[in-house]
Amino acid sequence: MGLVLLLVGSVLVLALALIGLAVILTASAALGLATVAASRKLPLRARIALLSIIAVAPVTALVSTLDIGVAWQLAAAALPFLTTVASGAALLAFQTRKRRAPRITTPAWPIHHAPAAGH
């Protein structure tokens, strides 16, 4: 009976840890997307600098709030930071590609060429 309770308790703790991790990573991704979306008028270098500065906020909050062991601090710091930077960089890349896409105009009506004379 004690082994079953121990197993159920460990599964519950693992499930809560995974839910907490999902919430933290989702919030970090939303922070990265919001930062890039809000800084639309800034130059690209300023947006990248702002994104990397803002990405440190969830890291400091997570490491200072939770009592994480020294062995896990790097992993706990890297996950939210990388999630924030990756989501922001993806949106930056999408917006940059969209801005620099060639503007090829297509005519409203297809152009029909008259057949060559004598054929």
Account of the protein in words:
- With 119 residues, this protein is mainly α.
- Helix content is 74%, strand content 0%.
- The protein has four helices and no strands.
- It has helices at 2-38, 44-54, 56-65, 70-99.
Provide a quick synopsis of the model:
It is built from four helices and no strands. By secondary structure, it is an all-alpha fold. The longest helix is centred in the N-terminal third of the chain and has 37 residues.
Main features:
single chain, 119 residues, mainly alpha, elongated
The Rg value, from CA coordinates, equals 25 Å
Distance between the termini: 94 Å
Determine the structural class based on helices, strands and strand pairing. mainly alpha
Please trace the helix and strand order, writing H or E for each element. HHHH
Q: Which blocks of ≥5 consecutive residues have pLDDT under 50?
A: none
- Percent helix among the residues? over 70%
Mean pLDDT comes to 84
Major pleated sheet: none
- The coarse silhouette is elongated
Write down how many β-strands occur, each being a DSSP E stretch of 2 or more residues.
0
What's the total helix number?
A: 4
Share of β-strand residues: under 5%
Helices and strands in order, then pairings?
Elements: H1 2-38, H2 44-54, H3 56-65, H4 70-99
